[in-house]
Amino acid sequence: MSTHSLPRVRLTAAAAVTTALALALTACGGDESGSEKAKAGGAGKVTVTDATGARVEVPAKPAKVIALSEMDLDSALALGVQPIGLTAGRGQKGAPGYLADRARDIPVVGAVTGPDIEKVLRAKPDVILAGQLADQKVLQQLKAVAPTVVTVGKDKDWKKALDVTGRVLGKQNEAKTFLDGYETRAAALKKKLGPNAGATVSVARYSAKGTAVMQQGVFISDILKDLGFKRPGIQNDRGQGHSTPISDEDIKQIDGDWLFIGTLAAKGKDADLFAELKTKPAYRQLGAVREGHTTEIDGSKWTSLGGGLAAQSVLDDIEKAMAK
Question: What mean pLDDT value characterizes the chain?
């Protein structure tokens, strides 16, 4: 089920005037000599290439960073940078559940559907990490506020996004160290899996609307690929949206040697959803359920946009469940 609808942008008349003025100033200052000066390393500025291939001039050491996607928030925190604004995670009122403690004091400036331009403007950021935002009108409004970098490519590759974010934040070395650490940890876990190496692993999400599976082209599928796991049925195919709804009659699509299933509900409500799921006869008949090979997971970590911290934590979850 795709959640990528058009961003809802709230913009008052005063904010609109301010944005328009900023756009005019940006256009006036965008001459070739200024651009060449930036490329030559002028006055605390660097030029980075974003996920779309665009070159963006940013402060060499930005102090006030806004993260407009879950992956941006994850990447910034992984690199030791505390953003001054974030967008709420998929199905969340604030940061994704697995980042809630780290991001407790960061104000919300938007939702999965898009940023609140007024709030972004008031925050006075040095740089904006725009995730996979593709709406050109919204991007232009953001660029009027501060240098804006699209960090997440169409492939949603969290490793590439972390590298881009590292360059934007002046944390290239930290990004490389983090990625090297992940690769080392994943390789070690792959060996530690023993007889479960190469197992068929299914990942699903459950909500009041029903069950959905995670197909290819999303964060968790890349993690499972790194570990050498197989995937069942349609989970080997690229989905049209972030997740693919499955009817109760077709719930066998989520079966596998091992099943990891989560919700995006808040703690407490997720228990109610899992209890509801377990009453379904078709669910109880799944092989993974009968074998006791099911693990209830944090959906905000496993089945959302992800990032480096999510990846490390997913490895922990898999080791606890499968490396016995």
Answer: 87
